[in-house]
Amino acid sequence: MRIGANLVIGGTLFALVVIAGVLAPWLAHTDPVMDANLMNAEEPPGGAFWFGTDAQGRDIYSRVLYGARISLTVGIVSQLINTVIGVCLGLSAGYWGGWWDDFVSGLTNLVLAIPSLIFALALMAILTPGLTSLLIALGLTNWSFTCRLARASALSLKSQGYVQAAKVLGYGDVRIMVTQLLPNMLGPIIVIGTLGMGGAVLAEAALSFLGLGIRPPFPSWGSMLSDARDQITTAPWISIFPGLAIFITVLGLNLLGDGLRDILDPQGRAGKA
Amino acid sequence: MFAFLLRRVLQTVPIILAVALLIFVLFSVIPGTFASSLGDDGRNVMDAQVIERVNRQLGLGDPLHVRFGNYVLQLASLDLGTSFRTRQPVTAVLAARMWPTLQLCFAAMVIAIVLGVPLGFVAALKPGSLIDTLSMVGAVSGLSLPKFWLGLLLMYLFALKLGWLPSFGYGDGGLRYIVLPAIALGVAPLALLARTTRAAVLEILNADFVRTARSKGMSERQVVHWHLARNALVIVLTTVGLQFGSVIGQAVIVEKLFAWPGLGSLLVDSVSLRDIPVVQGSILVIVLFFLFVNTLVDVLCALIDPRIKYS
Amino acid sequence: MSAAPLLQVDDLRIDLALGDERFAAVQDVSFSIGRGETFGLVGESGCGKSITALALIGLLRPPLRLAGGTVRLDGREIQSLRAAEMRRLRGKRISMIFQEPMTALNPVSPVGRQIAEMFVLHEGATWQEAERRAVEALASVRVAAPERRAKDYPHQLSGGMRQRVMIAIALACSPDLLLADEPTTALDVTVQAEILDLVRDLCAAKGTAVLMISHDLGLIANACRRVGVMYAGRIVETRAAEEVFRAPSHPYTSGLVASLPLLGARAKEGRRRLKEIAGVVPSVAGFPHGCRFHPRCGRASDLCREDDPGPTPLPGDGLVRCHHHG
């Protein structure tokens, strides 16, 4: 069954990456930042250096493992921020309506008018490069879909009988939103969240590649690829492994998201494809 | 029809203004001004007095509301300011870089549409078949590929190893130069279009009106031509519009990788150099372009689907 | 029986595939419809009447499958025809109208064109000629200003008008048999009668036989000459329409008749409260052993729990499946 396959393969890939990141200090052979020996610069894969070394003589294998920590942290945390913002804004906008709804809708349209990478790029231009800034930038630019979904769900659910019943019982607005409305939209939100994590990993890699994310010498997969460009003629293997790592991580998350969608959101409320 | 068009265009005006405001606010609080970046990598070795003089020259010393007022006035006269770095008018700087970006985005979307839509169609008409499984696996892989990695691999294989295509740059503007960047940029929208088209066609094939069509005695081929195509087109067109926007944003990555002289690479360079007017100007132009594409798609959809005009 | 029937269905069986298992959603269904006759198929939702019709016209799609029995149209077996040959019958010899006119028409095509398609498909007409005849067809289904209406899109028309368009499409090429699957259920009560009259008049004029499907026994009894009552995938009783009301044989039929609300004069003599049939319709995967109706039946005995009753012929070309009928 194709449904199961997505979930299993995606879950396995993602789990592998998580394990790699969590166990990096034990699985790695060297320190990813400090162990730079120019004598070993640009060694091809083999022997002590499973993935070869880069221009600074650092072991790529170890850097890829530690890079998993960065990508996963960014992916998970920034998507969490996005989800929280999206749900809070969308849920309240749909439930309360009125000027607040108009404001949130206007804000959403505004954010949607700017391509998300450009927006994140602009934010990173203002903030000093680094992990925290990256989390903020990515966390503030990708909440629109979740917001729209939460708003649509709130609008359709708020006239349901059990919500009216809760009001009659004296439940406060926030309590109603959290206990009555939120559980009914969790499925699609989880789907969007999972797929969004993949997008966040790609975005972090892209920003780091452009020099506006995680700066060298920290082992972000994206910045590793940026360095690799200059060495492409002399040491092409530097380009392969970090990119492969990104690919596996994002593929795992995408498959996982697809698999979850078949279970949690069969009607496709989270949006098509 | 004209009223619809007018309404749609007018809807974008407040968004443009809001974006302009947002950009201004964002970049007026930027720490580390242009002058300080003139020193090495922000290590601020420049004399504080020199920095202050440069700032005053560039008008950065004025209070916020004055600066905003000037900004709005300039925008109204379509003046995007002057580049800090080259002292050229921003509009001139942008104009030189717009065409390559348009070319690249257009080429990438052509690849995505020409390959992605038929693929999705075929996959939906034969669900569960080998071609369906292969294309969907391919699609999800295409969506997971980092563009710069794909670009690097393409560059390595086709330019360096095989020597068929140039490895970077705009060159003489010939077609050879745009191939690799367009592929790198176009794979993701291709994948998404294939998936969306497949989902749309599958949904329509199970729709009630298709059952009616079959009950009339139509062959599957006739069903596809007379009933399916137009209905699927609306969904596909909407996705194309959304993807175009994503492509415009993602072009930044591909332009930087392939040293493509477009708005994207200009934006990235200007951010590093803290050349604020150029940064603001390029973001504004990119957003304008994005809104234009969206409006165009909406209008096309309204032309095809008679239900939209009347809503 | 005088002339050979137009449609003869024997032991029809339709399977539903759930996971790896196969369930018989419809079983041992047999009935016949004479030329120009209106036959009603009545039963609750989920009893299998709609999929029976879809099986006759060859429009069953997975997970449903025609798994047994014969369907004879004018003496010729059609249940195992190749797709291309079955297609030739659709629209020309057998037509169908559906329950939801809202979604049954192509939203992006003018209704006139959708009617015109029939003439182009089956009678080799040019588009120009077909569009002209489409306007005539609209007039025949009593649509006012047919030339203008022909250019409208489905969403611009009311539910009743859309159903008229569907009827025009289905009867355009004067088929021998019209399958009408709950054609009025989704319409306003005031429009229902008009649509039913329209179907009756047009089919009488063209000599088209009708298989009318509904859950509304009153509607069926009024519109049809003979009635088949379906329960849990089986026909439990086939009678002439007045007989069904006057002297229902199967306990389920009795229950249906009794549950009809009484109005006016009849109400005075009858009960005030609506009578219901206790229990619920079993799902396909859980048909009871023995007679399928026995859990809800007032006359159930041990025999009924063990033995699934076969068809017992009744006078006047009827039949019933019950150990305690009458």
Q: How would you describe this structure in keywords?
A:
heterotrimer, A: 273 residues, mainly alpha, MetI-like fold, B: 311 residues, 13 helices
Overall pLDDT confidence of chain C: 86
**String of helices and strands of chain B:** HHHHHHHHHHHHH
Question: Which consecutive residue ranges of chain C, at least 5 long each, have pLDDT under 50?
Answer: none
Q: Sheet bearing the most strands of chain B, described? A: none
- Structural class call of chain B reads mainly alpha
In short:
The complex is a heterotrimer of chains A (273), B (311) and C (326). With 273 residues, chain A is mainly alpha-helical. Chain A has eleven helices and no strands.
Describe the structure.
The complex is a heterotrimer of chains A (273), B (311) and C (326). By secondary structure, chain A is an all-alpha fold. Chain A has one domain: MetI-like (MetI-like fold, Orthogonal Bundle), CATH 1.10.3720.10. Chain A has helices at 2-22, 24-27, 60-96, 98-113, 116-126, 131-141, 144-157, 161-168, 173-209, 221-230, 237-264. Chain B is mostly helical and 311 residues long. Helices cover 77% and strands 0% of the residues of chain B. Chain B has helices at residues 2-28, 34-37, 48-57, 64-76, 90-125, 130-144, 147-161, 175-205, 208-215, 220-257, 263-273, 276-304, 306-309. Chain C is an alpha/beta fold and 326 residues long. Chain C is 35% helix and 23% strand. Chain C has 13 helices and twelve strands. In chain C, helix 4 (111-123) crosses helix 5 (127-140) and helix 4 runs parallel beside helix 7 (159-171). At the A-B interface, helix 4, helix 5, helix 9, helix 10 and helix 11 of A face helix 1, helix 6, helix 7, helix 8 and helix 10 of B.
